[in-house]
C-alpha cells in the first residue's frame, strides 16, 4: 500500500468521522429540545396534579378529623390538625383513643369522596398506652374500592414513617407516589449516547489506521528482506557458476588453477549454506522448535573466548575489543552455544556499522540478582525513530552513506529471541554518529 493510499484512507476516515459527528450533534440538539419541552409540560402537569392531590388529601383528612372530633370532649382546631410531613405522608392530631378499624373505614370513605385513588398505609400512636399501631397496605382496586391486603406488601416500620411518641395522632402514608421519575428523566442525556458512539468510531478508526500502517511497514520489511536475500544468495551462486565454468575450461595439467577454482566453489558453497541455515534457524525459533540446552558456565570465560575469535576473524585489519569485568558474580545458567551467537552477532554489528577503526568495549557488572553485559561501540549510531524497530524480524536500520553492509535483518531479532528465552532483558541506547550501547540483563545461577 503506497503512502498516497494511506493518506487517502486517513482523509476519508476523518471526513466520515466528521460527518457522523455533525449528524449526531444535529439529532442530539433536536432530541434535547424535544426532551426539554416534554419535561416542561410534564413538570407543569405534575405540579398541577400534586397541588390537586395535596388539596384533596388535606380536605379528606380534615373531614376524617372532623368526624372523629364530633363527640370529643376536648376538640382541637381542625385546620391546624393536618400536617404534611413530605410529598407522600401526612399526620393528623387527635385528642382521644382511636380504633384502627374505625379509622380505616373513615379514611376509605373520605378518600372515595375526594377521588383519591392511591394505596396507603396508616399508623396510630396512643399516648395513654404508649403504643404504635401500623396497618397493613390498603390497596386501591379501581372504581373507588379499597381492599386491605392479607399480608404486608411493603416493608415499613414506625421509624420509617417518622412516628414519634408525642401526643395522640394518626398518620397516612402513600407508598406508590414517586416524584423522582421526572428528576431521573432530567438526568438522562443523549450526550451519553453520542459520546459512546464517537468513542467506538474513533477506536475503530484508530485501530484500522494502526493495522494499515503496520501492514505497510511489514510489506516494506518483507520486500527489503527478499531483495537482500536475493542479493546474498545470488552473489555466491554467480561466483560458483563462474568458477565452475573456468574449472571446465582449465587444462588437466594446470593443477593450481583447478585447486584455486575448487577452493572458491567450496568457500562460496559454505557461505551459501550458512546463509540458508541462518534463515532456517530463525524459522525454527518462530515455531519454538529450538530447545535450549542450559548448563552452568562462567560468562567471563565465554566473553574472553568470543573476543579472541572475533578479533582474529574480523579485526585483522585493525580494531580492538576491550574487556572490563566489574561483575563479582558471573556464573549463569544458559545455553552456551546460543549465548555465544548472541555476543558474536552484537560484535559483528558493531564492526560492520562503523566508518572508523572499530573500538568495542564489553563491560560486566552485577545489579541485584542479575549479571549485566554492556557492549559499547563507536559506530554510526541509530536514529531515535528507528530504535523501536531494530529487534523486528527482517528490519534493517537505514545506513545512510554506508552501502557495503549485507544481511537479512535477522541478527538482532535472533538476539532478542534468545535473551527472552533465557528470561533476560535487552535494551539499546544510541545517538546518531556517537555509537550504540546494548545492555543485556541475565539472571545469575541460584
Write the CATH homologous superfamily of the largest domain: Histidine kinase-like ATPase, C-terminal domain
The fold-level CATH name of the largest domain is Heat Shock Protein 90
Our count of helices gives 10
Give the strand tally.
Answer: 14
Total discrete domains: 3
Describe the structure.
- There is one protein chain.
- With 446 residues, the protein is an alpha+beta fold.
- The protein folds into three domains: 73-178, no CATH class; 200-286, Helix Hairpins, CATH 1.10.287.130; 295-443, Heat Shock Protein 90 (2-Layer Sandwich), CATH 3.30.565.10.
- Helix content is 52%, strand content 17%.
- It is built from ten helices and 14 strands.
- It has helices at residues 3-68, 78-81, 100-113, 181-187, 190-249, 255-286, 299-314, 336-352, 384-387, 411-421; strands at 82-86, 89-93, 121-126, 131-134, 138-140, 146-148, 169-173, 295-298, 320-325, 331-334, 359-367, 370-376, 425-431, 435-443.
- It has a five-stranded antiparallel beta sheet. It has a five-stranded mixed beta sheet with strand order 9-11-12-14-13.
- The longest helix is centred in the first third of the chain and has 66 residues, at 3-68.
- It is elongated, with a radius of gyration of 45 Å.
- The two termini are 51 Å apart.
Amino acid at each position: 500500500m503506497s503512502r498516497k493510499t494511506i493518506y487517502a484512507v486517513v482523509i476519508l476516515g476523518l471526513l466520515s468521522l466528521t460527518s457522523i459527528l455533525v449528524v449526531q450533534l444535529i439529532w442530539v440538539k433536536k432530541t434535547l429540545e424535544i426532551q426539554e419541552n416534554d419535561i416542561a409540560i410534564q413538570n407543569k402537569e405534575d405540579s398541577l396534579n400534586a397541588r390537586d392531590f395535596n388539596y384533596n388529601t388535606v380536605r379528606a383528612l380534615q373531614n376524617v378529623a372532623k368526624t372523629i372530633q364530633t363527640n370529643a370532649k376536648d376538640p382541637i382546631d381542625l385546620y391546624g390538625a393536618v400536617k404534611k410531613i413530605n410529598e407522600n405522608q401526612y399526620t393528623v392530631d387527635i385528642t382521644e383513643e382511636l380504633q384502627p378499624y374505625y379509622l380505616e373505614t373513615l379514611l376509605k370513605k373520605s378518600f372515595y369522596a375526594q377521588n383519591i385513588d392511591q394505596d396507603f398505609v396508616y399508623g396510630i400512636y396512643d399516648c395513654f398506652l404508649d403504643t404504635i399501631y401500623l396497618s397493613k397496605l390498603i390497596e386501591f382496586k379501581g372504581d373507588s374500592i379499597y381492599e386491605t391486603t392479607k399480608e404486608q406488601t411493603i416493608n415499613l416500620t414506625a421509624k420509617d414513617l417518622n412516628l414519634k411518641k408525642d401526643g395522640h395522632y394518626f398518620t397516612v402514608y402513600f407508598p406508590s407516589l414517586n416524584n423522582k421519575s421526572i428528576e431521573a428523566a432530567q438526568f438522562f442525556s443523549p450526550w451519553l449516547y453520542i459520546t459512546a458512539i464517537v468513542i467506538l468510531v474513533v477506536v475503530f478508526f484508530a485501530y484500522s489506521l494502526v493495522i494499515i500502517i503496520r501492514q505497510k511497514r511489514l510489506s516494506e520489511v518483507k520486500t527489503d528482506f527478499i531483495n537482500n536475500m536475493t542479493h546474498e544468495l545470488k552473489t555466491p551462486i554467480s561466483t560458483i557458476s563462474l568458477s565452475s565454468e573456468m574449472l571446465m575450461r582449465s587444462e588437466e595439467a594446470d593443477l593450481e588453477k583447478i585447486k584455486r577454482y575448487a577452493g572458491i566453489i567450496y568457500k562460496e558453497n559454505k557461505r551459501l549454506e550458512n546463509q540458508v541455515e541462518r534463515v532456517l534457524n530463525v524459522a525454527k525459533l518462530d515455531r519454538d522448535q529450538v530447545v535450549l540446552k542450559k548448563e552452568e558456565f562462567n560468562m567471563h570465560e565465554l566473553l574472553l573466548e568470543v573476543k579472541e575469535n572475533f578479533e582474529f576473524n574480523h579485526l585483522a585489519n585493525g580494531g580492538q575489543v576491550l574487556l572490563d569485568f566489574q561483575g563479582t558474580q558471573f556464573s549463569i545458567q544458559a545455553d552456551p552455544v546460543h549465548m555465544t551467537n548472541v555476543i558474536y552477532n552484537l560484535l559483528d554489528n558493531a564492526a560492520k556499522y562503523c566508518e572508523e577503526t572499530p573500538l568495542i568495549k564489553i563491560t560486566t557488572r552485577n545489579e541485584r540478582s542479575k549479571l549485566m553485559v554492556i557492549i559499547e561501540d563507536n559506530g554510526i549510531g541509530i536514529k531515535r525513530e528507528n530504535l523501536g524497530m531494530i529487534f523486528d524480524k527482517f528490519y534493517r536500520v537505514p545506513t545512510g552513506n554506508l552501502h557495503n553492509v549485507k544481511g537479512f535483518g535477522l541478527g538482532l531479532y535472533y538476539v532478542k529471541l534468545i535473551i527472552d528465552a533465557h528470561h533476560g532483558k535487552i535494551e539499546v541506547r544510541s545517538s546518531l554518529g556517537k555509537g550504540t550501547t546494548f545492555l543485556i540483563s541475565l539472571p545469575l545461577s541460584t
